[in-house]
Amino acid sequence: MSARLRGLPLQPPPGLAPRSTHRSSSTPTPMDITDPVLILADRGITQKNRTDISALAGVIETFGSFRKPDGKFGTIIAATASALQAVAILLHEAEQQQKNNNITKEDLQAAVIEIKASMHQ
To answer: Where is the composition biased (Low complexity) (predicted)?
Structure first.
């Protein structure tokens, strides 16, 4: 039986903190992500690669298609939802880091040309 049903205070998982909202229903308290790296640590995300878009894409790939064996879409559990929220937070962080690096359109075009050239070798 869950702690909430036994009347015990609900303890959030590591990296999550309860939102300070007043709710009149008995639904569980939503969680805010306080440390996305802690939530994604078991999926290989560290402080060093927290803004590595490739590593974050790898985390998303681990979730699969969310399809049940019959081909229909299933539901996700709270831990998966928290992990997806954590990835979103870190992707926003990566976006800001790229903006702060003053990457120009010309830089990106040069990178694309370089990648294409290396693929044809």
So the answer is: 17-30
